[in-house]
Amino acid sequence: MGELVLSADIGGSHITTVMMDVENRIEVPDTWFRTRLDSTASAQEIIGNWSNAINTSIALKNITPSKICLAMPGPMDYKKGISLIQSQDKYRELYNLNLKDKLGERLNFNPKNIHFSNDAACFLKGELFCGSLSGFSEAIGLTLGTGLGTSHIEKGIAHDSNLWKMPFLDGIAEDYISTRWFTKRFEELTGKSVKDVKEIIDEHKNSDHFKTLFSEFSSNLAKFIYRFAQSKKPLAAVIGGNIANAEAYFLADTRKHLFEMMGYSLPVKKSILGEKSILWGAATSH
């Protein structure tokens, strides 16, 4: 067994932790742990819940990792481990705190061996490391869910592209490529309120407007990828997030639209790692 790293994916409502053997590209069996979080809680409670999740994964095999690597949304000074989230509905209580020091103290772990990385960048890094983009070097990544995550590779390093707020159509990109767009547009077409894309598929797949909805989305997504690709010149793209699970209804059309715009076929692949792409990306970022 090679060097073991504790990897964590911290979202707005959950934390997932697992021990990784990076050298051999394997997940340590029976160390996966996931629990819900209240990201509006106090700093002490949030850091306590993170620590409990990390300790749970470590205790499952009773092996101390050499590093603890955490993927987390920004804004953040990732190198120093200082959260800069201030105006979002999550983790406001962590603003300006040194999370490396706080976690190190709570876990009795050297803060120098605790590392933070951007979650969108980790998604792409993981897919390149052992996922659907294995063998590619220059690529872009999109996570399609409640919000829009974007990432790109520059000189071998994964970066958050931060394009969710890019001017797009009559608003910003996230207005058109997110769960919010699906629920809003579905209600405009049908007059019915739905919670998410899964509900649309499960309960309204045979409705008159289902094809219209996904046809519009595939067009929006292709236009966005085209603009993204124009600036970053990738060799491939990968999509992940909850909306990617509905690929059967939009991905073929997205590729077709993209081919028409670009004049060549840019590989657009669905993540094969799912949530594990972020965990692998975090574990291999330091």
From TrEMBL:
Arranged from A to Z, the UniProt key words for this protein are:
Kinase, Transferase
- InterPro entries reported in the protein's UniProt record: ATPase_NBD (IPR043129), ROK (IPR000600)
Which Gene3D superfamilies does this one have?
Answer: 3.30.420.40
Does the record bear Transport in its keywords? no
Any Pfam family matching the protein: ROK
SUPFAM superfamilies with a match to the protein in the record: Actin-like ATPase domain
What superkingdom heads the lineage? Answer: Bacteria
Molecular-function GO terms, alphabetical: kinase activity
Keyword Kinase among UniProt keywords = yes
Q: Which PANTHER family match?
A: BIFUNCTIONAL UDP-N-ACETYLGLUCOSAMINE 2-EPIMERASE_N-ACETYLMANNOSAMINE KINASE, ROK (REPRESSOR, ORF, KINASE) FAMILY
- What family does the entry list? Belongs to the ROK (NagC/XylR) family.
> Mind telling me what this protein is named?
Glucokinase
